[in-house]
Design goal:
Two copies of one chain form a homodimer. With 191 residues, chain A is α/β, with parallel strands linked by helices. Chain A is built from six helices and eleven strands. Chain A has a single domain, classed as Rossmann fold (3-Layer(aba) Sandwich), CATH 3.40.50.
Chain lengths: 191, 191
Amino acid sequence: MKLLEDKILSDGIAVNENILRVDSFINHQVDPALMMELGKELASHFKDKGVTKVATIESSGIAPALTCAMTLGVPMIILKKQPSKTLNSDLYQTIVTSYTKGTSYELTLSSKYITADDHVLIVDDFLANGEAATGALRLIRKAHATIAGIGILIEKSFQPGREKLTSQGIDVYSLARIKKMDKDYIEFIEE
Amino acid sequence: MKLLEDKILSDGIAVNENILRVDSFINHQVDPALMMELGKELASHFKDKGVTKVATIESSGIAPALTCAMTLGVPMIILKKQPSKTLNSDLYQTIVTSYTKGTSYELTLSSKYITADDHVLIVDDFLANGEAATGALRLIRKAHATIAGIGILIEKSFQPGREKLTSQGIDVYSLARIKKMDKDYIEFIEE
């Protein structure tokens, strides 16, 4: 999507071959009008897939998931990173390990909000190694729901996340796909 | 705001005199159309106050802050709960202690995104003891910005948060103000 690629080129900061800072419009400061356009574009791609819920992982995915869910006219579900104090049989939980960050967290979903009747679109800001998306998939499968696809703002296409997901037959739609980057250099995959 | 009060009465769960669950439309599952209406109402109250940025605390405040910022046509800033690994002089930080939850966290703001030129509206989902809002105020003051006000979805008016804020001369606008609650009982303050 040219709008997002242009924004990344003008306002993103490529720190090295792995780190892209988008603090000024996605992660820390958020441009609401841009988020609405990005959410609409994700919704447009998945509009005929029978999506019943949009799920995201707190917290950077919330803004694009909300605008996407708003456009599709379905609820958004926030998969929670903090373990609930009131652990019970109504919660699905899974551990997500980020190898790049060297951290783990527990991802939680209440069984009330995603059920076997749901066809779920996962939306997140970044796709790199695919750990978060894979964790979200595990939770949604625990709920016996089906996966409509995965919508991503920025994909680091040189990392294995997309391959892990598409090899399971999942439709992954990323608005900007970075082929290669380095300090002050960003190259996108041409669609 | 009648729309939110009615939603709380129909879908909220008053567990006891202190705990209100709104998991099904605000915290865990989010109703995007409702969030747009709530954001518009907050924006409407503050529209003539010269707001330049809407700030919120991750993560339950992001949805109403985004729709409010979208309506006002200004950026949204997400105050981050996790300490940044790259601590440096460009970050403002403060510790927020939640006495009810018995937890503390570090709230972080990059100095790039709120400056002395900003007039900031803080938006959050709940106001109870006011610890989170007070932490947000501290960060915004560290940035030498001024406060346009505080917009809240649900205020537990029987707790001291509002008084702590209004006693500093801050305009606090809450869409639903709970006077009293108990198991399966909720009473609002009539405006």
